[in-house]
């Protein structure tokens, strides 16, 4: 009996390790090619070619950029706090990677008689976990800016911390309205409800819009890239960084953009659900169905990533006072109104009213 339990635990550990390696690898590869896609989208919008030298159509450009960052000389300023200077980019990268642990990437696959969920951790407080990990990312920015012992880096880090804290409030309020409708913090259950019914974006269009705007601010993307305003702050909070430490900060931004897109697709657009297709009718496909569901999620994510890039090369950067006014005087009141209206509708429906 004891040996059987030990074997089950061993299989469980191996299963989760394989999932972790696969999801981390996919996240890194997608983040790597986001840099290529961004340069190509910018080139298209600006009527030029973009990367086209390294490999066919420039497809090896991200690898060339990665090799360049690895090979560059690593410089740590003498006046910096060495331990915190190294900890900052590591913390930013770690926080970016940990968020994907609670995302359901597909249905279940049959592996030698074992039903394996394509989700690392199906915890009942999945959304709270995401918010907790995302809030850790600001420490990577603050620590890196302060440890650099550079006034421009510190100023950019303060901007970044204020921005993230300000926009987490309307983002959280927009999700409270969503949770009133779903009645669960569990990501897999939220996806299952959308598969059985309608996508949440139809019930919460304002909540989705608020979440989308806040995602731009949380990822420090234009028009909310004030912490990296190079024409004001000499490249921002990672000005003193070089080599792969700089690469970690840049990579963390693209991974955050990827994970934000995954979260939006999961909460508002059915996650891995294949649109306009009854998944039950495809049950005969076996394990291929889970792969098709994962592909469906990736396609939705790619659409969101394109929106991130499109906005960057279309809308100019806000002033810092405009950024704060939008968060505190516009998005938070809108999120509160949305939450109150949603609460009223849920209460009336529970009393027998029909909408």
From TrEMBL:
Gene Ontology annotations for the cellular component aspect, listed alphabetically: plasma membrane
Transmembrane segments: 6-30, 83-103, 123-143, 164-185, 197-217, 246-268, 288-311, 331-348
Keyword Repeat attached: no
Reactions this protein catalyses: a quinone + NADH + 5 H(+)(in) = a quinol + NAD(+) + 4 H(+)(out)
Domain of life: Bacteria
Main location: membrane
GO biological process assignments: aerobic respiration
EC number: 7.1.1.-
PROSITE patterns reported in the protein's UniProt record: COMPLEX1_ND1_1, COMPLEX1_ND1_2
Keyword terms, alphabetized: Cell membrane, Membrane, NAD, Quinone, Translocase, Transmembrane, Transmembrane helix, Ubiquinone
GO MF term list: NADH dehydrogenase activity; oxidoreductase activity, acting on NAD(P)H, quinone or similar compound as acceptor; quinone binding
Oligomer status and interactors: NDH-1 is composed of 14 different subunits. Subunits NuoA, H, J, K, L, M, N constitute the membrane sector of the complex.
Function: NDH-1 shuttles electrons from NADH, via FMN and iron-sulfur (Fe-S) centers, to quinones in the respiratory chain. The immediate electron acceptor for the enzyme in this species is believed to be ubiquinone. Couples the redox reaction to proton translocation (for every two electrons transferred, four hydrogen ions are translocated across the cytoplasmic membrane), and thus conserves the redox energy in a proton gradient. This subunit may bind ubiquinone.
The name this protein goes by in its record: NADH-quinone oxidoreductase subunit H
